[in-house]
Structures are given as C-alpha cells and as structure tokens.
C-alpha cells in the first residue's frame, strides 16, 4: 500500500487540464482533433486554445464540450472539417473515410494519422509525437517523465506479485448493450499493462456478454467500462452480482475513455484497477463448480 501511496502522489502532481482557453501563441495553428485520447493529450500539453473542433469520441475534459463536433472519427465529413478552416487534423490510423483525409491534404490541411496506442510505451510515444506536432516538446517530455514514474512503480508491483489475477472487462455502451472485452482489444491491452489475465481471452474482439459465460469466467476481479455514466445497472445482471469478485469488492465501474483510450490518464486507470485486484496468495474460489455449467 505504501507503493500505491507514492504512485498516487506522483499522479496528483501531473499537470491538470486547463478549464478555459487562454491566448493563442504567436504563429499557433488551428487544430481539429479526431480521437478522444489525442484531444486529451492536446489539453494536457496546454494547446486547447488552438483547437477549433473535435470528433464525437472527444468527451474529456469538460471544456471540450464547448468546441464544435465534426462527427465520428470513422466517418469524418470533408465539408464539416474544412468549414472550421483548420491548418492541421490530428487523428489516428482508425480515422475514415480515406477519401476525406486525402481531400483535406489536397486542399492544404496537414493530416497526421498516429498509430493506435495499446501499451504504456506506445502512449508515451504518442504524447511525444503530438508534442512535436504542436511545438510543445518540453511539456510533452515533462508529462512523459511523470507518467513513466507511475508506470515504473506499477511494473515493480506486478513483478512482485506471485500470480496473475484473472479479470473480466465488460463494455457498457447504452443501446449497443453490454459486451465482453476479449483478446485483441484495448481492454485486453489494459489488463496486460497491469500484469493481469483476461478472463475471456478465448473471445476475440468485443462480443455481446452472455450470462452463462459470466458465470463460467469466474474472474478474480471485474471492470465495467461505461461509454456514459450510469449505462450499467448491476440489477440487470444478477449473475454478475453473485460472483465472489463482485461481492468481495474486487470491482471497478468507470469511464470507458479513461480505461480504454490509452491517453494521458492511463496512469490513473492503471492505479485504479491495481487497487481492486486481490492481494496475497491466490484465493480459493469454487463458485463456478458449485453452480455447474
């Protein structure tokens, strides 16, 4: 617990997001950000005053809601982006359609498509790259250094753990229902970053959750990632509520962008999950066998 206290102290020392835009730097550019994590990084680096628009995955910090929305990053409209007269569009390899991106480049907009980050190391690399794009290299280096200290502390705790807890991640996405976060997902990558195993690794991608599979998974801890607050109701999932992990408090319900975007809040997400994992020897758990298949 002493290590967690030190890591939390470090996390609290990270630069806070500005709540309002300040005066733009001389020679600053007009930026459209099409990715929630990219937007968070731009705020963390202090260039929110250069943002003229964001996509619909950009929801944090609260000040981002004051900016025009250009649509979903996988369906970016050419006219919608161009109407904001941007100098550059910063997005990821997930951005679509390709035609929109090519047309923007043809009319003089600098389009940068960053790799999708799915590890602490890739998160730091993305922060450094964005710092270079917006002339905030010093701020990016400071943020990278602060986050690296937290990541190093978590790595030490993972190395000292005698076993790898099994964790179930559920994605609650409103009308799209509740899904398992299987292999080859941001959920799986998050678990890998804290030395945990995926309780549904036999499932690839995000697939609709079934009550039978929840019981058979019988995880040591449970994470629910909500795309909006209050989208998951445990009363609708009595099978989950009966699992020892849920009943014993080894659970976390939180913002999906915090948990799965691998942005500048990744350290906060990793610390929050680390604190719900069982400590000490692997606990005996016969719930699944007692309840049959």
Topology:
Layout (H helix, E strand, L loop, with lengths): L1 H11 L18 E4 L1 H9 L6 E4 L23 H5 L5 E5 L5 H9 L3 E5 L5 H14 L3 H24 L5 E7 L5 E4 L4 H8 L3 E2 L7 E3 L2 H7 L3 E6 L11 H4 L2 H4 L3 E5 H5 L5 H9 L12 H5 L2
Parallel strand pairs: 1-2, 1-3, 3-4, 5-7, 5-9, 9-10
Antiparallel strand pairs: 5-6, 6-8
Helix pairs in contact: 1-6, 5-6, 6-12
Output the keywords:
293 residues, alpha/beta, 10 strands, six-stranded mixed β-sheet
Structural features, described:
- The chain contains 13 helices and ten strands.
- By secondary structure, it is α/β, with parallel strands linked by helices.
- Helix 4 (98-106) links the parallel strand 3 and strand 4.
- Helix 6 runs parallel beside helix 12.
- The protein is globular.
Strand segment count: 10
Mean pLDDT across residues: 89
Order of helices and strands: HEHEHEHEHHEEHEEHEHHEHHH
- With helices defined by DSSP (H or I, 4 residues minimum), what is the helix count? 13
Q: Classify the helix fraction into a percent range.
A: 25-40%
Q: Brief overview, please?
A:
The chain has helices spanning 2-12, 36-44, 78-82, 98-106, 120-133, 137-160, 186-193, 211-217, 238-241, 244-247, 256-260, 266-274, 287-291, and strands at residues 31-34, 51-54, 88-92, 110-114, 166-172, 178-181, 197-198, 206-208, 221-226, 251-255. By secondary structure, it is an alpha/beta fold.
